[in-house]
Amino acid sequence: MAERRMRGTPAAPGVAVGRIVRYTPARAAVRTADLAPTEVEQEVERLQRAVAQVRERVTQARERARGMAGASEAAIFDAQLLMLEDPALIGEAERRIREQRQPAARAIDETAAALRQQFAQLEDAYLRARAADVQDLATQILRVLAGGDGAGPTEFPENTIIVAEELFPSDTALFDPGRVVALVTERGSPTAHVAILARALEMPAIVGVAGALAQAQDGEGAIVDGDWGELILSPETATVSDYQGRVDAARQERARLRALQAVPAETMDNVRITLLANIGTPREAEIALTHGAEGVGLFRTEFLFLDRPEPPSEEEQYAAYRQVATLMAHRPVVIRTLDVGGDKPLPGVRMEREDNPFLGTRGLRLSLRYLDLFRTQIRAILRAAAHGNVWMMFPMVATVQDILDARQVVEDVQAELNAQGIPYGAEMPIGIMVETPAAAVAADVLIREVDFFSIGTNDLVQYTLAVDRTNPNLAQRYDPLDVSVVRLIAQTAAAANGLGKAVAVCGELAGDPEAIPLLIGLGIRELSMTASNIPRAKEIVRSLRVADAEQQAQQRMLGGLRD
Ligand code: PEP
Ligand code: MG
Q1: Domains along the chain with CATH numbers
Q2: Cα-to-centroid distance, 278 and ligand 1 (Å)
């Protein structure tokens, strides 16, 4: 067959070469004839038994996802379990059986179709994507009603590329990442849960490839380019060798950089630099270790709070934080308290619209406003600190008063834990992100109130240069190496170093090969970055001399030319 190329939307990066498996779980036949009045209660019971079986399956899928991808990915299935309790789905199907004498399968099919349509009309992309969850559950219930166990096929040959109309989380969680190398769907969006799972499992994926099922044949050779969003069917020999070359090169590069794992991040003149990882889920902590991270310099906790109708409980947060603390053993884990607000609304909390969200109730400001939420998170972090080397960090600090207010809440929570006899890490260091110009300018004052600083260059750049970090029209102006930013980093580092306190950089700049020598020259000795950047950062550290880096930094401080 001739080579054919189809375009879709990139949903998870990477490339894979393999063979197609068309994933079309048979749709159970739906009986349409009405029930006899005597059959009604029996049919309701049949539906309830099927729902119970599906609940069991979803719970299993959740445990599997927790093991493979992490707590926040597993939360996808918590949402499904909630949906199974929702009267809009099962209650409505029961009503149709009782009042309209519909057979169970038809009742669930029609209820799901109506719900799905309602979701599809919503403006919010996240809620729209929930239509897929409804269909996922309905499909499983239909399979059980038809006499199956609710599962689609799960056994695949090696190097399988799955092509499906749509994939549901319950399917994806059961795919073996050792055999399934990539995913392609005709429908779905990059924000769908399947895409999130694929990224967490490092499995290339493309969504929205219209007509893929009709074009692709089972067993056909194919390539998935998850970076570009292309599916290549029956690729020509030259195309295969080109892509196979990319797959092999990526593998070799990973192996080469992995070899660096055993050596320390030390400059040529023997100055030790600490390389840490930024993570957003417990699963990423595992990946961080495989890249040689010496700890977690930034654990963004937002992921636990988004994608769900209510904030996570203290126990759920404690479990997630403790998991990372335990995994990292003696290595530091800097847990940042919630950094939402403004442009990232918090589900379950009604916030008024703000004209300037980036200058609004964001980060610590939001936590100090919703004290119950803040106290719950602090309790969870303090308790997790009993299991490892946990540090706590506040985002969006501008003034000394911010720090005093936050510390007061920590003290109150500690007193409460003492009174309740609940163990916690009493020695836990407390620090702040330096990401507002106010904090950087007054760094010498603020440092007296905290144990450490971590410089958030992503925000520091936007606030210093007055350039919205999300505005593509201003991308040219968003310059992290502008002399103004460089000076703020320098004085923040000097303030902390002067008192012998830790200072790290955890914005994107920390993992930028061009910036690493400059940051070291400015006095930074700890860099926290996306885990996959760590090996390259180590290579750079090992090839430089601090004296040279300091000279370069001096030039930049004076506004000197680059390189
Ligand atoms: C930063 O602002 O540099 C930072 C690390 O935080 P975030 O990107 O989460 O705002
Ligand atoms: Mg920030």
Answers
A1: 4-25+152-236 (3.50.30.10), 37-145 (1.10.274.10), 264-557 (3.20.20.60)
A2: 10
